[in-house]
Amino acid sequence: MRILGIDPGLNRTGFGVIDAAAGEARLVTAGVIRVPKSELAQRLAVIYRRLQEIIAETTPDMAACEKVFVNVNPNSTLLLGQARGAALASAACAGLRVAEFTPTEIKQAVTGSGRAQKSQIRAMMVMVFSLPETPQADAADALACALCAAQAARMVEAAGAAKTSIGAARSTSCGGARAARRAWTQKITGMEERKP
C-alpha cells in the first residue's frame, strides 16, 4: 500500500510518501511545500495544486492527515484549518481515501509516547527510513502521519482476519453441532422404528 502523509500548514505543508507492506515501510519521497506570502485564497490554491501534482507523480493508494488541534490563538487555528481543508480537498478530489489522526495518535504510533517531542519524531524517521540526514520537521511529521496510517491499516487487517477465523470456527462448530443432532435424531428414530 502506498500512503501519502500530509502535515498541513499555511506557510509550509509537509508531505511524505511511503510504501508499506508486511510490517515494513519504505520511503518513496518526502519534502515541504513552501507557500509564498500572498492572499489567503492564493496560498490555499498553492497547497491544493502542489498536492495534486505530488499525487499524480507518486500515485498513492490513500492519504493520511493530521487532525487540527485547538491552538492558544484562535486565528492561527482557523488558518491552519483552512490549510488542512485545502489538503483534504486535494486528496479527495484525486479519489483518495483520507485517514485522519490526532497529533497524540501519531506520536504514540511512531515513538511509543503520545507526548514525544518533534526532535524525537525526526530521530525516529531517520531510524525507520534509514535517512542520511534529519528531515525538515514538517516532512518528518508527514512521514510519521503516513507511518501511523500504515500501522492502523495493519491493525484493521489483522482484526478482519481474526473475525474471519472466528466466523469460520463458529460455522464449523455450528455445523458440527447440527450434524451431531441429526445423527442422534436418526439413531433415536431408527430405534423407535425397530420397537415391536
From TrEMBL:
CDD domains with a match to the protein in the record: RuvC (cd16962)
Swiss-Prot/TrEMBL cofactor(s): Mg(2+)
Pfam families registered for this protein in UniProt: RuvC
GO molecular function term, any single one: hydrolase activity
Subcellular location, record wording: Cytoplasm
Cofactor detail note: Binds 2 Mg(2+) ion per subunit.
Annotated TM spans: none
Major localization listed first in the record, in broad terms: cytoplasm
Active site, renumbered: 7, 66, 138
Superkingdom: Bacteria
Binding site for Mg(2+) 1: 7, 138
Alphabetized InterPro entries for the sequence: RNaseH-like_sf, RNaseH_sf, X-over_junc_endoDNase_Mg_BS, X-over_junc_endoDNase_RuvC
NCBIfam families, per database record: ruvC (TIGR00228)
Role, per record: The RuvA-RuvB-RuvC complex processes Holliday junction (HJ) DNA during genetic recombination and DNA repair. Endonuclease that resolves HJ intermediates. Cleaves cruciform DNA by making single-stranded nicks across the HJ at symmetrical positions within the homologous arms, yielding a 5'-phosphate and a 3'-hydroxyl group; requires a central core of homology in the junction. The consensus cleavage sequence is 5'-(A/T)TT(C/G)-3'. Cleavage occurs on the 3'-side of the TT dinucleotide at the point of strand exchange.
Protein family according to the UniProt entry: Belongs to the RuvC family.
Assembly notes: Homodimer which binds Holliday junction (HJ) DNA. The HJ becomes 2-fold symmetrical on binding to RuvC with unstacked arms; it has a different conformation from HJ DNA in complex with RuvA. In the full resolvosome a probable DNA-RuvA(4)-RuvB(12)-RuvC(2) complex forms which resolves the HJ.
Name of protein: Crossover junction endodeoxyribonuclease RuvC
